[in-house]
Design goal:
The protein is an all-alpha fold and 176 residues long. The protein has three helices and no strands. Helix 1 (2-21) runs antiparallel to helix 2 and helix 2 runs antiparallel to helix 3 (128-175). The longest helix has 99 residues, at 24-122. It is rod-shaped and about 145 Å long. The two termini are 41 Å apart.
């Protein structure tokens, strides 16, 4: 750029010097020289502009490659995280299914125990000892039902927390 400016200043000085001399021949030669120097300055400026654009394009291409590599790393990390969260969710759902099955069995047992207790209550007074034992089994079964219900509630809360975390990561990944 400095060379181009220098050529334009030189052309201006030559034209000004020729104009001061008052000779039409010198003015014509100086004007031609001024046009040639201006064209050379324009060519230098154009070459410099093209070189800077090529360099900027190389920089952008290098940045794009680096971003693609970073995106690939993040995508693989995210896929591993999603797989881990999904496996934990599957484990929790399986545990929840098992607990619900156990709860159902316990409720059936409790219902059976209650029916037996009622049937034994209508029998003779001599069966009082068996009735007491059935009440104890029913109490234990009901306690187990309550315990299983609490475990089911805790697992559901944990499942909802893991699912919410997974959704928030999905949301962040979509906006990244």
């Amino acid at each position: 750029m400095t060379t181009a400016v220098g050529l334009i200043v030189l052309a201006a000085l030559v034209v000004a010097g020729a104009a001061v001399s008052g000779s039409w021949l010198l003015v014509t030669i100086a004007a031609g020289l001024g046009v040639a120097l201006g064209a050379a300055a324009t060519r230098i400026t154009h070459t410099e502009l093209v070189a800077s654009r090529v360099e900027a394009a190389r920089d952008r291409a290098a940045q794009a490659v680096a971003y693609n590599e970073l995106t690939e790393v993040r995508t693989s990390e995210h896929a591993a995280y999603v797989a881990d969260v999904q496996s934990r969710i599957n484990e929790k759902e399986q545990a929840l299914d098992e607990l619900e099955l156990a709860l159902s069995l316990s409720q059936r047992r409790a219902a059976t125990s209650t029916r037996k207790r009622n049937a034994e209550g209508r029998r003779a007074a001599g069966l009082q000892v068996r009735l007491t034992e059935a009440e104890e089994r029913a109490g234990i079964a009901q306690l187990r039902v309550v315990e299983l219900e609490q475990e089911v509630l805790a697992l559901r809360a944990e499942l909802e927390a893991v699912t919410a975390a997974w959704h928030s990561v999905e949301h962040l990944r979509k906006h990244a």
